[in-house]
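Quick one, tokens below. Sequence please?
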């Protein structure tokens, strides 16, 4: 299979579906879709779906079934967080799960469900060769934040240090029983729903979750917004490298843009809630083709094929 950036695949899907735009709904290509009419409380319904495949998104050797259940719900919830939505429910479709696997998988799902106040309301079970979990999450957002609102002069910021998950994966491939901070970060990524809702409430201009690495996801945001990127400060998690932080996947922090007065308000708001204050990693520029870090161009390595694949080194 020829490697193809995800954006090419999305173009094919959008062309074949050939849907006329519905009202002001956000469709294919953002973190989640905004669907249906405005609710009576003025909020919008937001939906996202995500699939994890054994051998592609996780390995049974170093991830327990509980870890896999947790990750499956968290990776979908991360897309709701990036829209500033709160979840109202999730469905889970499982392929290739043995009967004996169900208890552990669903315990992991339950941990994430309780932590995020997102009930699992339905699903489907099917036989198959490969363990595959698809989680669809439904949420509501007072002000859905899309990727396309960044403007020249807005700061680019991230909710936490990056690279821990990729460093953890490297460690786990070497020692499947590793249990230090980065290994745990890979097996049990964080849920940033509270951060996302707060950021949406103060009016950030664009947001995306960091699922495929800083360079890749910052590029997606900048491309959707038609701005350039000048990055200078990348917060690296203890135990990870700068390369992990820039190109590693699955950190599930939130990357957002806003003007400087809004960023100052975010600092106060997060401090008041006892949350770590986000870090400014750079600025949006007027040259839409610019992708610089420390004054040098960076290359975006897109995930191969249709989805994220582990990339090491
Ligand atoms: Mg996303």
């Amino acid at each position: 299979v020829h490697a193809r950036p995800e954006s090419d695949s999305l173009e094919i899907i959008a062309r074949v579906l050939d849907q006329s735009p519905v009202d002001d709904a956000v469709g294919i290509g953002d973190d989640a879709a905004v669907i249906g009419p405005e609710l009576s409380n003025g909020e919008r319904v937001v939906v996202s779906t995500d699939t994890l495949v054994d051998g592609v998104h996780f390995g049974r050797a170093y991830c327990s079934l509980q870890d896999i259940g947790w990750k499956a719900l968290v990776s979908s919830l991360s897309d709701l967080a990036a829209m500033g939505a709160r979840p109202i429910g999730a469905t889970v479709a499982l392929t290739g799960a043995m009967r004996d696997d169900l208890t552990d998988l669903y315990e992991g799902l339950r941990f994430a469900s309780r932590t995020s106040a997102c009930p699992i309301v339905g699903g489907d079970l099917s036989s198959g060769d490969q363990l595959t979990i698809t989680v669809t999450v439904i949420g509501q957002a007072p002000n859905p934040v899309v990727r396309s609102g960044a403007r020249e002069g807005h700061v680019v910021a991230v909710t936490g240090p990056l690279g821990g998950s990729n460093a953890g994966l490297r460690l786990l491939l070497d020692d499947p029983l590793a249990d230090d901070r980065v290994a745990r970060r890979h097996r049990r990524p964080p849920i940033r729903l509270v951060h996302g809702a707060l950021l949406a409430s103060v009016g950030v201009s664009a947001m995306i979750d960091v699922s495929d690495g800083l360079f890749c996801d910052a590029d997606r945001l900048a491309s959707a917004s038609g701005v350039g990127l000048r990055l200078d400060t990348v917060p690296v998690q203890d135990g990870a490298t700068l390369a992990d932080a820039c190109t590693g996947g699955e950190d599930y922090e939130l990357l957002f843009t806003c003007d400087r007065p809004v960023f100052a308000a975010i600092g106060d708001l997060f401090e008041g809630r006892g949350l770590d204050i986000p870090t400014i990693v750079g600025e949006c520029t007027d040259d839409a083709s610019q992708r610089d870090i420390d004054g040098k161009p960076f290359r975006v390595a897109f995930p191969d094929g249709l989805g994220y694949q582990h990339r090491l080194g």
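Confidence is low (pLDDT under 50) at residues 305-313. The first helix runs from residue 6 to 17.
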